[in-house]
Amino acid sequence: MPELPEVEVVRRGLAPRTVGRRITALELLDPRIIRRQQGGEDRLRAALVGSTLTAVVRRGKFLWWRLADADGRDTGEALMGHLGMSGQLRIATPEAGGPVAASPRHRRLSLVLDDGARVDLIDQRLFGGLWTSPLAPAVDGHLAGLGSPDALLPRDAAHVARDLLDPAADLPAIARALRARRAAVKTLLLSQDLVSGIGNIYADEALWSARTRFDTPGTALSQRRALAILRAAGEVMERALAVGGTSFDALYVNVDGRSGYFARSLDAYGREGQPCRRCGRLLRRAVHQGRSSHYCPRCQRPAG
């Protein structure tokens, strides 16, 4: 599943190709991809066709475009996107003197832009989607997310906490929130209401870096340890972002169809049975609350 670095790579790829462009047509190939859209296809088509994309924003794993009408006025809603388990947003451009490239497999929806390009939503498993959502002010008054022009965010993203690449994220407050809960620290890192954007890969990497076992209760963390985990998560995601994110298969690629290369740099995730890069002990995998966790039995000892 794409996590924060992968979604941010997609946002950065979309921004120069879509911001300032007008939507001239909507091609819906599978209605299931807009199941969250109130009013269905007709409402989505009415909101998008003729509108201009004025910004592309990310908060956690959610993306959205801001919309303006034909007169350049903000429409008061955003086009939201979530990639789910296997979603991709790809840019198809016209070939020299010819049509746009052939449609890829699992294309569910496309936005046709006024320069002839096409934004394709590709989703093999159909857990992602696009839909419109009204804008509302962020509670803390800060910019809604990376790429946002102001503090307005889609109502459907209001429950999503700030992420660790967001300058407005309050790390000491997030650390205190982690320490106030008895749940396992990995479960808390994956809870998007405390800190957003972290999934299985980067949770394992952060916990390995901070020498903390996945099932340590939040209440067992010191403020210093909780901050170390959060900072480690932010650092590992920054490093992943620098090389295009983590690709294990064709289900995550950037807007040009290229894979990310951070899988080559992982210290814990997916390395069961391989030596710990820090101490040499063989890494293990455990299933906790239905999720696999990769850890070093020497560097990441049980709490207490």
Provide tags for this entry.
304 residues, alpha+beta, N-terminal domain of MutM-like DNA repair proteins, Helicase, Ruva Protein, domain 3, five-stranded antiparallel sheet, four-stranded antiparallel sheet, 6 helices, elongated
Tell me the span between the first and last alpha carbons. 33 Å
> How many individual domains?
2
The rough form would be described as: elongated
Kindly state the mean pLDDT as a whole number?
Answer: 90
- Widest sheet: strand ordering: 2-3-4-8-9
Uncertain spans: 247-252
The tally of helices reads 6
Q: What share of the residues lie within helices?
A: 10-25%
Tell me the CATH architecture of the largest domain.
Answer: Alpha-Beta Barrel
Strand content: 15-25%
Please compute the radius of gyration using only Cα atoms: 20 Å
CATH H level of the largest domain: which superfamily? MutM-like, N-terminal
Largest sheet: 5 strands, antiparallel
Q: Tell me the CATH topology of the largest domain.
A: N-terminal domain of MutM-like DNA repair proteins
Query: Which structural category do the helix and sheet elements fall into?
Result: alpha+beta
